[in-house]
Amino acid sequence: MEDIFYNILWIDDEHETLSGTKGRAKRNGINLIPYKSLDGGMSELERNYPYYDGVLLDAKFFENEDDEAGSEDTYASFRAKDRILQLPKKFEIFILTGQAEAYEDRTFKKAFTKVYEKGKDEDVNRLFSDIKEAAKGQLDTQLRHSFKRVFDLCTERYVGELAGQDLLKLLKVTDESDIDNDFNTIRKIVEDLFTAFHKYNLLPIEFVSPGVALNESSKFLAGKSSDGSLFTEKGFQHLEETHLPQQVASYIRSILSITQAGSHRSNIDKFVKQVRTPYLFKSVLYQLMDVLVWFKMYVDGNPKTENWQRTEGVISEVGAEPADLIEGKVINMNIDKGFAFFQPDAGGSNIFIPPHLVTANSLTNGLPISVEIEEYVDNRSGETKSRVKRIFN
Predict the structure, then answer these.
(1) What is the pTM of this model?
(2) Are 338 and 156 in contact, with CB atoms under 8 Å apart?
(3) In a designed cystine with 135, which of 6, 45, 192, 318 is the match (CB 3.0 to 4.6 A)?
(4) Is 71 helix (H, G, I), strand (E, B) or coil?
(5) CA atoms of 40 and 53, how far apart (whole Å)
(6) Straight-line distance from the first to the last Cα atom of the chain, in angstroms, rounded to the nearest whole number
């Protein structure tokens, strides 16, 4: 059985010097995700609160990321509590502090009932035990642990954290009252999946930009129809070595046939209203979850990339260097989430480096690299963004 970890957002301006606390937490099944300021930590929690199982604060910490030493104040912890209480998900707040005046202050302890003292072994042991006990009561936590292999790929390395938030909502559905939106949410996750196929160079950009072409992507990835004839989609044929397994292709075809808008969907909606159950929706959701688990196994196995040819017979040149390479270096590595940024030598905006490229190229802060940049349309926001497509170092 895989180890279960609890994800705890931790705000402490001195967290970089507390590697022993992080290691001790890890040995206790707790993954501390650290930030040093109110602004940094709360911005992350407000964006991705379903991902977290609890919150740990120092009594005093910075308000902003660039604040100077000496500006730490308990005001930040009170403001953090106010913002945490506004979240749709309810968290128990834990305090780990070395500030004796805060630890002994009645007003502070009235506002924060779970206060533990840094450097005191029995307090730290009790803290970790209490954090896990509180986290076990979170429905989101129970679902993420029950379906761990699915949620393991709901990160920026694979299909994105928003897909994970959508999955949590879908797993909580118990009736058919909002079934139309539920089917649409499943379709959105399929779009995230096809975008991830492109991110790993397993699907040409023409299939995901300016929008995700669901039917064409499904057929291209499957490679051929049930009678063995090859599909030609958007001027491309997918070479056989990386065709989807038959079961996965069948799942995706089934998911899209149910969730896509159109005349066929009106019959689906009519059927759901007639039987008044969520079972059809649940069956499609579980098929999707099977596909997601398979996708992580597949890309972790480093499949052959750009394995297609244009219909006029011009085969893509796998590994060919593009005409325009941009020189620069790696900066702002995020250890916990795996991504980094590229800083061009010529100046201009820093550019996002997806986690799979960070891992595949063993990137480190300050490493000089040459990159190819691509523009893409964010599936969720509709915005046009830039990211690193390939790295040459």
Answers:
(1) 0.77
(2) yes
(3) 6
(4) coil
(5) 18
(6) 39
